[in-house]
Design goal:
The chain is mostly helical. Among the domains are: 46 residues; 68 residues, Winged helix-like DNA-binding domain superfamily/Winged helix DNA-binding domain (Arc Repressor Mutant, subunit A, Orthogonal Bundle). It has seven helices and three strands, in the order ααααβααββα. It has a three-stranded antiparallel beta sheet. Strand 2 and strand 3 form a beta hairpin. Helix 1 runs antiparallel to helix 2, helix 4 packs across helix 6 and helix 5 packs across helix 6. The longest helix is centred in the first third of the chain and has 26 residues.
Length: 168
């Protein structure tokens, strides 16, 4: 990175955090500097790209795969939500994920993940009259955690700033 560009990022971060209370100024400066530095790096990457490395489409594919939620995680969320309290076949699970949750997985991806969750003891399976496996969970669903009120959130905010309220 060029010295002039780094100096510009430092000055902008200092200007952004100058009006904040002294107790949080250092942390805010660090976060602003990181954000501005990231924006600068992205802008530089867009302007001049070298010919080495994967093609832009190859990077996009890798990034989209990294963000994609895997079938095991999606199934674990269904277990926690109580979807498997009654027996469900592979086709029912696949249709629910596709239609309700908006995640499309191949049946082979789901069957492997269902088998792994069965081996982990999170699901149980039995064959139904048609000879298909039905997966179910006998674990009770925990009640949801109550949402904090605004007053509790403000109290926690005061604790983070050494008891002094932030001026807005």
């Amino acid at each position: 990175m060029k010295i002039d560009a780094l100096r510009a990022v430092l000055e902008e971060a200092a200007q952004l955090t100058a009006s904040l209370p002294d107790s949080i100024q250092e942390v805010a400066f660090g976060k602003a500097f990181d954000a501005l530095l990231g924006e600068y790096g992205t802008a530089m990457a867009r302007r001049g790209r070298t010919t080495r490395g994967p093609s832009p489409s190859g990077r996009r594919d890798a990034a989209s795969r990294a963000r994609r939620r895997g079938p095991k995680l999606a199934l674990a969320q269904l277990i926690e939500s109580g979807f498997f309290t009654s027996g469900r076949t592979l086709r029912e699970v696949e249709a629910h994920l596709r239609d309700t949750v908006g995640r499309a997985y191949e049946s082979n991806e789901l069957s492997i993940s269902l088998l792994r969750l069965t081996r982990d003891g999170r699901l149980q399976r039995d064959r139904n009259l048609a000879g298909q496996y039905e997966y179910r969970s006998e674990h009770e669903i925990e009640p949801p955690v109550p949402i904090k009120t605004l007053r509790q959130g403000r109290a926690n905010g005061r604790l983070l700033t050494d008891g002094r309220e932030m001026n807005r």
